[in-house]
Amino acid sequence: MHKKDLSLLVLILVVGAVVAFINPRFLLVGNLSNTANQIGLFGIISIAEAFVIIIGGIELSVGSVIALLGVLFIDLIVNHDVHWLLAFAIIIAAGLAIGVVHGTLVTRMRIQAFVVTLCGLLIYRGAARYYTEDATAGFGFGASFPTLEWLTAGRTNVLGFPLPHSVVALILVAVVAWVVLHRSVFGRYLYAVGKNEEAARYSGIRANRVVISAYIICGGLTAFSAILIAMYTRSISPAVHGSFYELYAIAAAVLGGCSLRGGEGSIIGVVLGTVLLQVLQNLVNLLGIPSSLNFAVMGTVILIGVVADQYLTQRGRRTKAARERPETGRPETKMAAPLLDRAKAE
C-alpha cells in the first residue's frame, strides 16, 4: 500500500468517526449495508475508469452506456424471454464492442479521447431513449428471476452483517484488476504508455494495442456494472439513469491517486476513493443538506482533496530533490585541497 493510500485510509476513518459523532445513525447496520452496496456498485465503474485514465485517456460515456445496456438487459430477459445467462453474455459482449470502437477511434483515427467519449455520451443516451420511446423500462407485474436477483442484488449474512453481493463482486474485480495492473507485464505497459506513449513505442511496446485494450476492459466492466445497477434499481428511466456516474468514477479515481495526465494510480487507491465518496454522500444525507446542494458539497470536498494531494506531492518532490542535491562546495573543496598542498610544497 502506497503512502497516498494510507493517507486516504486515515482520512476515511476520520471522516467516518466525525459522521458517527454528528449522527449516530451512521453506524446502524442498515445504513452501513446500504452504503456498502453503493460502494460496490460505484467501485466497479471507478476501476473501469481508472484503466483508461492510467493510459492517459478519459471515458465520459460511462453513465450513458449504463443506461443503454441496462435497458437492453431488462428488455432481453423480460420482453424477449432470453435466458439471463445468455443476456448477461450479450450485454458484456456489447460493452466490450463499445470499448473496441472507442479505442480504435482514439488510436487509428487519432481523435481525442475526450471528443470520442463525449460523442458516445450523447449517442448512447439518445439510443436508450429512442429504444424505449422515452418510457421507463422495468420488470412487469409478477416478473421474477430469483437466482439472478439473489446473485446481483442479494445480501448474505456475514457475522450478523448483511453483506451486499455488489461488494463481493467489487472485491473479485479489484483483486483481478490489482494483479493485472501491479503484477503483470501488461500492467507495466499500461503505466508506460500513460507516462510517455512515444517513448513506449520506441521501447517496443505496441501502444495502440495497449490503449485499445484499456478501453475494452473499461467497456466490459461498465457493462457488468450496468447489469448490477439495473437489477438493483429494477427500473430504468433512460433520460436520467446513470447521469453523472462517469463524474463519480473519475472523481473516485483521481481521489485514489490516478493522475489525469496518465501513468499513475493504484487499484487500492481507487477503491478507497470510492469509499470516501460514498461516506461523504451518506454524510450529506444524514445531515439533511438539501439535495440541490448535494453536488456542490461533493465537488467542493473533492476539489479540496485533490488540491491538498497535489500540494503534498509537489512538496514531497521538492524535499526529495533537496536531500539528493550535494552540498555546495564540498566536492570542489575535497578536490582542491591536494592541489593547494602541492602548491605550498613547491
Spans where pLDDT lies below 50 across 5 or more residues: 328-340
Question: What's the helix-strand series?
Answer: HHHHHEHEEHHHHEHHHH
What is the averaged pLDDT score?
87
What share of the residues lie within helices? Answer: over 70%
Secondary structure: number of strands: 4
- Read across the widest sheet, the strand sequence of neighbours is 1-4
Class inferred from helices and paired strands = mainly alpha
Shape: globular
Please give the structural blueprint.
Layout lengths: L2 H20 L6 H26 L7 H17 L5 H24 L5 H19 L5 E2 L7 H8 L1 E4 L2 E4 H18 L2 H11 L1 H6 L4 H27 L1 E2 L8 H11 L11 H20 L7 H31 L5 H16 L1
Antiparallel strand pairs: 1-4, 2-3
Helix pairs in contact: 1-12, 2-7, 2-10, 2-11, 2-12, 3-4, 3-5, 3-10, 4-5, 4-10, 6-10, 7-8, 8-10, 11-12, 12-13
Characterize this entry briefly.
This protein is mainly α and 346 residues long.
Tell me about this structure.
The protein is mostly helical and 346 residues long. The chain has 14 helices and 4 strands. The strands form 2 sheets. The protein has a two-stranded antiparallel ribbon with strand order 1-4. The protein has a two-stranded antiparallel ribbon with strand order 2-3. Helix 2 crosses helix 12 (267-286), helix 8 packs across helix 10 (207-233) and helix 11 (245-255) packs across helix 12 (267-286). The radius of gyration is 24 Å and the shape is globular.
